[in-house]
Amino acid sequence: RLKLDAKGFDVGGDAALNGIPVRAAWRQEFAPTPVMARYTVAATIDERQRETLGLPIADYLRGPTAAEVTVDSDGKGSFRVAGNFKLDASTMALDVIDWRKPAGVPGQASYSAKWEGRGPLQVERASLQAGDLKAQGSAVFDDGALTQADIRDLEYAGNVFGMMPHPERNSEKL
Questions:
Q1: Residue 165: what pLDDT?
Q2: For residue 57, what pLDDT is reported?
Q3: Which of 12, 19, 62, 127 has CA atoms 20 to 30 A from the CA of 168?
């Protein structure tokens, strides 16, 4: 569908991304605004489709995941990205802490990030709540590699941890 008005246009509907069915929307402004373009993609994908999309989720997430990702562009090369994920039908496992979430147990994850068009991707907020595991933090990725991770809150198996980055180590590579 296409909707055109004096301020801009909207395009949206069912589409395919690398052969995967998605719902997509695009809002484009004509006059300068802080958000010149907004792109939204929503789909339910499994591990095979995540692999097709080049998403490095490894073995800790299996099964269908409902996802919605929105990208805002200022039209000058800077982007803000937000993602929301419903994990109820997924199985999850973090072997390092011997944790599992079976399918059918509620779960959700979200993040917001910014990228200035070059340099690192800054994940300003990331959160996970799945079964008895809750976590919140932030991260920095440079050239696709994780260079910083700050876990502010972690709750697991009835234990609550609060962690802060060490100021002198904040710029060190992991």
A1: 55
A2: 66
A3: 127
10-residue mean pLDDT series, the chain (174 residues): 94 94 96 94 91 77 93 94 96 88 96 92 95 93 88 85 57 45
Contact 92, 130 (CB under 8 A): yes
Residue identified by tokens 């990228």 is 115
Question: b/e map of 86-119 (b: 16 or more CB within 10 Å)?
Answer: bbbebbbbeeeeebebeeebebebebbbebeeee
List the beta bridge partners of residue 149. 139
* H or E element that contains 125: strand 121-130
Instruction: Name the DSSP letter for residue 119.
Output: S
Give the model's pLDDT for residue 172. 45
What's the CA gap between 13 and 5, in Å, rounded?
18
CB 155, CB 170: distance < 8 Å: no
Contacts of range 82-88, beta carbons closer than 8 Å, 24 or more positions apart:
82/110, 82/111, 82/112, 82/113, 83/109, 83/110, 83/111, 83/112, 84/108, 84/109, 84/110, 85/109, 85/110, 87/61, 87/130
Q: pTM for the complete prediction?
A: 0.83
132 DSSP 8-state letter: T
Residues 152, 134 contacting (CB under 8 angstroms) = no
